[in-house]
């Protein structure tokens, strides 16, 4: 389930937005499941299958992903050394983003027992 922030514009209409782009969401979905069908990636991200295909093509063309045919399916390899495209973040690799959103972490840190 995708949760988006909602704001009201000056004319009263609602605008939905997220901090990450659809390209980032697709890259993260594939990093989590490199053998996922694009149909499933599209459902997870909340885009059409055609949009997911276009995004994967963009990511492949720029070297963020490599596609390998395995039987009747595709398997993707993510390049964590790829750099962010915006000049403000170009010094960072996408590996840092992948680690942030794909590494298993304890969702609720255990509180230290209080002394009695």
From TrEMBL:
Boundaries of every HTH marR-type domain copy: 22-70
Coiled-coil region(s): none
TM region(s), chain numbering: none
SUPFAM superfamilies per the UniProt record, alphabetical: Winged helix' DNA-binding domain
Pfam families the UniProt entry points to: MarR_2 (PF12802)
Protein name per UniProt: Helix-turn-helix domain-containing protein
Naturally occurring in which organism (per UniProt): Micromonospora cathayae
InterPro entries xref list: HTH_MarR-typ (IPR000835), WH-like_DNA-bd_sf (IPR036388), WH_DNA-bd_sf (IPR036390)
